[in-house]
Amino acid sequence: MHGHVFQITEYGPAELPFADPDAPTDILTRVSAGPPVKRDTMVIPEYNYIKIRMRADNPGIWMFHCHLDIHFAMGMAFAIVEAPDVLQRTMEVPREMLEFCHQQSVPIAGNAIGKKGLDFKGLPKPPTLVGRSPRPFS
Diameter of the chain by CA atoms? Predict the structure, then answer.
């Protein structure tokens, strides 16, 4: 996660109906022993998860993402907006960026779809996970 050092508080194989039954389960444990490990990156094996704890003391918009380009393109990334009240008081969007948004018909105010409050009507539906993909390598 950019902009922060986080602690790994839990990790292990995900309990999913489509998880790989042949995946090794002895590599990771569910809860780490001792104090949580501080990291700024983490390798997460397929069909596994991590839980992290971080101190939210760095106002900004921070990316949390996978470093595999194909995963990034598939939407395996998100942004955390930390201290939006501080950002509104201290940050100004450059005029060029606002012009670019206007040229692309991208709203520059409102929520994720340019509307007020929790009105997300018209927002595209996220992809639906229907099952696991076959392993690309054997």
Answer: 54
Bridge-based pairing state of the strands 6-13 and 48-54: antiparallel
**71, amino acid identity:** H
pTM of the model: 0.60
Q: How far is CA 116 from CA 6, 99, 112, 122, in A?
A: 33, 21, 9, 13
Strands 37-39 and 48-54: unpaired
Alpha helices in the chain (DSSP H): 69-73, 84-90, 95-103
Query: What are the beta bridge partners of residue 51?
Result: 10
- Provide the β-strand partners of residue 78: 64
3-state secondary structure of 49: strand
Blockwise average pLDDT, block size 10, the chain, 138 residues:
84 71 56 69 82 89 83 81 90 91 88 84 74 56
